[in-house]
Amino acid sequence: MSKSFRLIFVFLAVVSCAKSQDKDANFVKNNYLKQEFRIPMRDGATLFTAVYSPLDTSVSYPFMIWRTPYSSAPYGNQNYRELHNKLALEKYIFVVQDVRGKFMSEGEFVNMRPYIKDKSPDEPDETTDTFDTIEWLLVNIPNNNGKVGIWGISYPGFYAAQSLIDSHPALKAVSPQAPIADWFIGDDMHHHGALSLVLNFNFFQGFGRIRDSLHIGWPEKFEYASPDAYTFFLNMGPLKNFNEKILKNRIPFWNETMTNGVYNSFWKSRITLPHFNDIKPASMIVGGLFDSENLYGALNTYRSIEEKNPGGFNVLVLGPWSHGAWYRSDGNKLGDIDFGEKTSEYYLNNYESPFFNSILKENKLPEFPEITIFETGSNFWKHYNSWPPPNVQDEEIFLDENFTLSFNAPSVEADSFDSYISNPAKPVPYTNILRDSRAFYPKEYMTEDQRFAYVRTDVLSYSIVVLEEDITFSGPLTAKLFVSTTGTCSDWVVKLIDVFPFDEPNPVPNPDGLEMGGYQMLVRGEIFRSKFRKSYEFPEAMTPGEVTEINIPMMDVNHTFKKDHRIMLQIQSSWFPYFDRNPQKFLDIYSAGETDFNSAVQKVYRKGFFSSRLLFGRLKS
After folding, report:
1. DSSP 403-435
2. Between β-strands 144-153 and 171-177, what pairing exists: parallel, antiparallel or unpaired?
3. How far is Cα 26 from Cα 77, in angstroms, rounded to an integer?
4. I need a surface site. Which of 54, 143, 166, 566 has the fewest CB within 10 A?
């Protein structure tokens, strides 16, 4: 494709998207009345709130609330935004609110504002701001039916989840979707102590700016030379250089992150999971199996509510989606992987609309299965009454000699190992897609072909013989590694991969010349910083040359490895620049200098007592 044609294509795509958004906004303008308010909170601060009420007043409507730190724009009573397409057709009173301290709302913004259990009467948190908002709406917005629903994706998913705690009696239905739950263990900011570098630098350099007044626009990002992300982040060097060269200490939350490198009260106070007690509203948790940001939050928010509220209405929907793709795409594919149907339409038509309509309009609970989950590989929706499914059997798959995998434990022999050199100056990339460093990560990396990593000498790849029957991995995964290093701290990355047959047909049409024969589809990957192997609060160095056990909890999967496919595990010590580099030296990485980064010889053991393996649940038919 020529450069000029690409530019024309991009221009037409932007114009088409703009026309679609204009059309949606025009529908809202023709069917809704927009009003803007400043709703007072119990401490005196006012929160800017836009209310879209149906012009048809022949019936009363429930409220549908979206609380966001990302702006309730466009501002002004004559300026309309696109609303939730399907629910807008079905008519609700839509409420879009700037959360405390953002855009046109007063007060101080606090990232993942901690819940205050024993608060004073005028002390605010996100639960009280939601409660006070609902109370005001019920009294001041006419033609409401007295029922409230709340939903949100990602950060707004966090606010939706918070609304479940100490909830207003009128709040009947809540759908936290990809909600943030824990910013050190598994969501957004870190995975098991490793910093999500490319995501957080690009996010907080704009989002983290401190405002000096109420405002309606986003702040400008920092200006700097910006080659592809891998080159840019590698050339930046140690993490402290981001402040010295670009940020200049102007992003307070970045500074706080750089001074809180362990799982201390700063991070623990922000966890939502301990607080889901005595939940009254019905809840539907939604997440993406290929969500690189908040699958942890979706899974664990569901689990926490389920464990603390037996008998309550709490269901989980997981589709083959990247972050927010159930709302932002038709969900038929991710990158090169086709799922055979428009999975987002299935969810919106069969779950999201019925969930809110049944509870808020028909005054009844929907008849949903407890678990609705897409089974990738086989490409079918499955329904279960618990998660993991009741017919799952715990099994293990072991690393074996000659870079193979086996369902049988290796024979007890002298310990043997495979090794590689991990060099922080040339870290393993997380993707083969080159993008400008100012762009967010390519979401399709979660299913990306791993052949680019397979050929590297600092990646160990183990595969099983061709499968003679289908096998479905369902539920949590844990990698149990026995390793050693010549350094004192290392990262360990484990990837579960579905290797397609060499005669796998290519897509038709195939404009990009994609070669599916031997495709190594990433199913799940996880990173673990070894100094946290015993405690996230109190890190410990590794002893050079000493065999050490590292247990790596991985996100849940629901994937069928088809007959004639192969199962592969890849092991490496960097996944850059999605995650920051480990100097392979025990120290505070956030204050590390240029000379602290060293190569290390990494050994992965696979015999006798030290048998590295993957623990998984196998779905029995």
Report:
1. GEEESSPPPS-S--EEEEEE-TTSPPBS-S---
2. parallel
3. 14
4. 143
Tokens (6 digits) for 31: 């069917």
Of 204, 171, 210, 160, which is closest to residue 63 (Cα–Cα)?
A: 171
Q: 581 vs 165, 204, 421, 563, 585, CA distance in Å? A: 38, 19, 15, 38, 11
CA–CA distance, 430 with 527 (Å, rounded to integer): 11
Report whether 184 contacts 190 (CB < 8 A): yes
Secondary structure class of 13 (helix, strand, coil): helix
Q: What is the rounded distance in angstroms from the CA atom of residue 340 to the CA atom of residue 319?
A: 13
pLDDT score at 1: 38
Cα 165 to chain centroid, rounded: 22
Q: Of 606, 92, 86, 163, whose CA–CA distance to 397 is shortest? A: 606
* Distance separating alpha carbons of residues 263 and 41, to the nearest angstrom: 32
Pairing of strands 548-561, 471-485: antiparallel
Check: CB of residue 98 under 8 Å from CB of residue 74: no
pLDDT of 329: 95
* Residue 338 · residue 316 · CB < 8 Å: no
Evaluate if residue 563 carries a pLDDT over 50. yes
| Residue 596 identity | D
Residues 114, 99: Cα–Cα separation, whole Å = 14
pLDDT digits 0-9 by tens, 206-216: 999 999 899 99
CA distance 613 to 554: 13
Its sign, for the CA torsion 18, 97, 274, 283, is negative
Amino acid at 209: R
DSSP secondary structure code for residue 390 in this structure: T
| Token couple for 546 | 């000493």
**Strand pairing report for 600-607 and 417-422:** antiparallel
456 DSSP β-pair partners:
none
What's the chain's length in residues? 621
353 Cβ contact partners less than 8 Å away, ≥ 6 residues apart: 86, 87, 90
